[in-house]
Specification:
It is a single chain. The protein is of the alpha/beta class and 343 residues long. The chain is built from 9 helices and 22 strands. It has helices at 15-26, 43-46, 64-76, 132-135, 162-171, 191-203, 301-320, 329-332, 337-342, and strands at residues 5-11, 31-34, 52-53, 62-63, 81-83, 88-94, 97-102, 107-115, 121-124, 140-141, 154-158, 177-181, 207-209, 213-220, 223-230, 236-240, 243-246, 250-253, 266-267, 270-272, 285-287, 292-293. The strands form 6 sheets. Strands 1, 2, 5, 6, 7, 8 and 21 form a 7-stranded mixed β-sheet that branches. Strands 10-17-11-12-13 form a 5-stranded parallel β-sheet, with helices on one face. Strands 14-15-16 form a 3-stranded antiparallel β-sheet, with no helix packed on it. Strand 12, helix 6 and strand 13 (207-209) form a beta-alpha-beta unit. The longest helix has 20 residues, at 301-320. The chain is elongated and about 70 Å long. The chain starts with a strand and ends with a helix. It catalyses: 2 reduced [2Fe-2S]-[ferredoxin] + NADP(+) + H(+) = 2 oxidized [2Fe-2S]-[ferredoxin] + NADPH.
């Protein structure tokens, strides 16, 4: 058992969690970060590392992977303690010291807790296709980690939401041929994206196949040869493709949280917070990012950043019984020894 008591333990190493550790450092309070994944970054790392993000201030566009690289570099300036590849299986408090017990047996101690788990452990929804596992991560994928591997390939994308539409647009100019399959005629996306899909279809860059669903896959040794589709009229199409991307959304759960000795109030997988402090119904526990909700919540990465600042300031005030003195990064970071090294 590690007997060192940090000021804050952050559960979740996605963007909000990482930025919370940075903000803790700005306030001269120490932090731990715990995450079930082996890498930091949450969904950015696990689901769409090569996808461009366009709503990060200061970046015209940046891939999710590079965004996380830069965010971790910023966070590591303050040297948080990382506990990766382990989930929090229990959370308890004694004499105002919180113990987060992990699935590997670690007992991580701190004065306050910030929950930043997103919507929880997530996994892609999978269609009921025979022999699906044989092709997974070989020629059937739920995310793109190497966009160059799709160069000059015949690709099919199945799904009707933002991920399916965005990746269709990203891949249209590099693939030999790309099909977009959806079980409905209408897609779900913002008007600008839908207009671009329509334009690409008219230009012959994308072939839309609606309303069809996946019926069967065929190939050998993990290499896909064709996909059979079916519509509501029992009409079939078999299309030769080499790679299939499945974007049917994600399944989330925070069931592990329900087994904690001390658990905040969870409603429909989300934790209700006071947005003025990000505090939960349990004193000493805060929640930020997608896991946190309130009546005016907007789920964006930048919202999670703002919530991280609020939660850290609230935690500081509870720990020190006074409001923190705001330090601007241009002053605080300038006085750190590593700035001289960077210069």
């Amino acid at each position: 058992m590690n007997t060192e008591v940090a000021d804050i333990t952050i559960i979740g190493a996605g963007p909000a969690g990482l930025f919370a550790a940075f903000q803790a450092g700005m306030l001269n309070i120490t932090s731990n970060i715990i995450d079930k994944s082996s890498e930091v970054g949450g969904q950015c790392t696990a689901l769409y590392p090569e996808k461009f993000i366009y709503d990060i201030p200061g970046h015209y566009k940046i891939t999710a992977a590079n965004f996380i690289v830069e965010l971790k570099k910023q966070t590591d300036r303050f040297k948080p303690n990382y506990y990766l590849s382990q989930a929090v299986v229990d959370l308890s408090v004694s004499n105002n010291i919180w113990t987060a017990t992990t699935s590997t047996g670690n007992k991580v101690l701190s004065k306050k807790i910030i929950i930043a788990t997103g919507a929880g452990f997530f996994q892609p929804r999978k269609p009921p296709l025979e022999n699906l596992r044989e092709f997974e991560e070989k020629s059937i994928f739920y995310k793109i980690t190497n966009i160059k591997s799709f160069n000059n390939e015949v690709v099919m994308i199945a799904g009707g939401g933002d991920s399916a539409l965005d990746w269709t647009i990203e891949l249209a100019n590099i693939t030999k041929k790309i099909y977009l399959v959806h079980r409905r005629v209408d897609f779900r996306g913002n008007p600008a994206t839908l207009k671009k899909i329509e334009d690409f279809a008219q230009q012959g860059l994308v072939q839309l196949i609606t309303p069809y669903q996946l019926q069967a896959i065929s190939g050998s040794n993990g290499q896909l040869n064709s996909v059979t589709l079916k519509n509501s009229k029992n009409e079939y199409k078999t299309i030769s493709v080499k790679k299939l991307l499945l974007f049917f959304g994600l399944e989330f759960n925070n069931k592990a949280m329900l087994n904690w000795t001390c658990q905040p109030s969870v409603e429909k997988s989300f934790i209700t917070v006071d947005p003025s402090t990000q505090s939960t119904n349990i004193h000493g526990i805060f929640a930020i990012g997608d896991i946190a909700t309130h009546s005016s919540k907007t789920k964006l990465i930048v919202t999670g950043f703002a919530e991280a600042v609020t939660a850290c300031h609230s935690a500081y005030q509870q720990i020190n019984q006074k409001k923190p003195v705001v330090q601007y990064s241009t002053v605080k970071i300038k006085n750190q020894h590593d700035v001289k090294q960077e210069a």
